[in-house]
Amino acid sequence: MSGAAGRNAAGFAMPRPGNDTPGPSPPGQAAEVTPDAPPGGAEAGGLLAADALVDLDEEGRTLKITGLLERLDAEFVGLAPVKDRVREIAALLLIDRLRSRYALPSARPSLHMCFTGSPGTGKTTMALRMGELLRELGYLRQGQLVTATRDDLVGQYVGHTAPKTKDVLRRAMGGVLLIDEAYYLYRPENERDYGQEAIEILLQFMEAHRDDLVVILAGYQDKMEVFFRSNPGMASRIGHHIDFPDFSLGDLMRIAEGLLEREEYRLTPQAAEALREYIGLRMRQPRFSNARSIRNAIDRLRLRQAGRLVAAGGRISRADLIEITAADVRGSRVFSDSAARPPGHAARPADHMA
Amino acid sequence: MRITQGTFSYLPDLGAGEIRAQIQYAIDRGWAVAVEFTDDPHPRNSLWEMWGLPMFEIMDASAALHEVTACIRAWPDHYVRVSAYDATLGRQTTALSFIVNRPAHEPGFRLDRQETADRRIRYSLHAYAADQPSGERYRRDDQRHP
Asked: For a surface tag, which of A61, A92, A291, B143 has the fewest beta carbons within 10 Å of its beta carbon?
């Protein structure tokens, strides 16, 4: 198991039928045997002279990188560190293509990643999109996502782990393997646990198949650190440690609006104001999990809106079905809980409700 | 004598890129790719040893190519083939099969004639390699036990 590129390209020796056809391999062979070469290369246009100039913007447009990054920006609120990293990876791809046109070496970077962050900061969602992104950037051939947890990798008895782990890895080749809550792989309290074996196979694959597979570990920061401390090999094989920051109030508000818009709901101006207040209160409560809490809150908004409409009865219009009023928002227990507590962010008086 | 079996058998041996492309084609068709090896070159020997289980659920040829490489490394002096099984109802058969590795020297076959009743002749093919016990066929001379 030496370098992956070497093994797949040159090391994959097809013995020519020995004495039957002596002589060098046919000339077409060289190009065919290197399908793993970094994207770009020959098809990106001929070699350039050493003093030639190329237009970066033009190249970026042909590779559709600009559009890709814009879509990423539109789709995800906040998450600046992640977007920066994707932007850098995309930029490297662009530069590598240009380098190869000047016949400069360009090796594929290791793209294994570790996503850490509080609950609900979009780690799993981002991992889902990452395969697609990396495929569009040309770093992955298929871009499928295979999600694995401890159960999928670690076996139950001796000799069960390796085939299990290898099977998952085989399915993930050409795409992304997302190991959610990777720290559960390692159970230091049980020395006969087979998790360590899975980790070793994983490490070996991550090293040998850097070109075929991107492994993303996702989990909470503190537990992940403990995991890396006991598995230093894992930490060093992961090139990108990305910490997902908590969302700000404004970000959460935009997420909420985005979610509502996708489901064809609309907030009245008073409701929007109430929702902003609600999020502000909810953020200070225990077990706040960022975007996930927002999604749950919106589900409850819909419940309360439906309850209100059904209770009122009578004839309703399409607009009524779409509209969420301040009363729907203020029906939340978050307001009553904080009202019970000493002032600060007390709920407004009841007559203020729309 | 060069054995010709399976698909592409009259073409020059496939390169790694071509093997990858063929495997990817099979995967894209939803066929299960398997790696098999043997050192019995007889044309009627259709059941070769299996290198692991057929690979279901893989998406990318590199996973299968990894097994092909491992098999060739373990059995450099054997025939190694890739076969793709189409499980579609009504077909349920090997859809594609091609040799990806062969011994450096293939001594070929001898035609045996057996005279039976009424001056009839029975013919049979005998592979010279089969004179050696399995596992010792196709060894290069410097590796062979005296």
From this structure: B143
Q: Å from A95 to nearest chain B CA? A: 26
CA A137 from centroid of its chain's CA atoms: 15
Give the closest of A12, A26, A33 to B69, CB-based. A12
- Residue A42's pLDDT is 41
Closest Cα in chain B, distance from residue A32 (Å):
5
Q: Is the ipTM of this complex over 0.90?
A: no
Contact B16 A12 (CB under 8 A): yes
Residues of B near A (CB-CB distance < 8 A)?
2, 12-18, 20-21, 55, 57-63, 65-66, 69, 72, 76, 100-106
Say if B34 falls within a structural domain. yes
pLDDT of residue A57: 78
Number of domains observed in the structure of chain B: 2
CA distances, A316 to each of A209, A261, A286, A329 (Å): 60, 21, 38, 20
Mean pLDDT, residues B61-77 taken together: 92
φ and ψ at residue A146, rounded to 5 degrees: -115, 120
- CB contact under 8 Å between A35 and B16, yes or no, is yes
State the residue range of the domain holding B94. Answer: 16-101
Q: What is the pLDDT of residues A132-170, one digit of tens each?
A: 888 888 888 888 889 998 999 998 888 899 999 999 999
Predicted local distance difference test score (pLDDT) of residue A134: 86
Whether residue B8 lies inside any domain: the answer is: no
Q: Where residue B97 sits, what CATH number does that domain have?
A: 3.30.190.10
CATH of the domain at A93: 3.40.50.300
| Burial of A119 (C-beta count, 10 Å sphere; 0-12/13-18/19+) | middle
Which residue, A229, A244, A259, sits at the end of a domain?
A: A244
Q: Does A209 contact B20 at a Cβ distance shorter than 8 Å? A: no
CA pair distance A214, A4, nearest whole angstrom: 13
Angle at A246 between CA A227 and CA A322, to 5 degrees: 130
Q: Is residue B142 over pLDDT 60?
A: no
**What range does the domain containing A237 cover?**
53-244
State the CATH number of the domain containing residue A265: 1.10.8.60
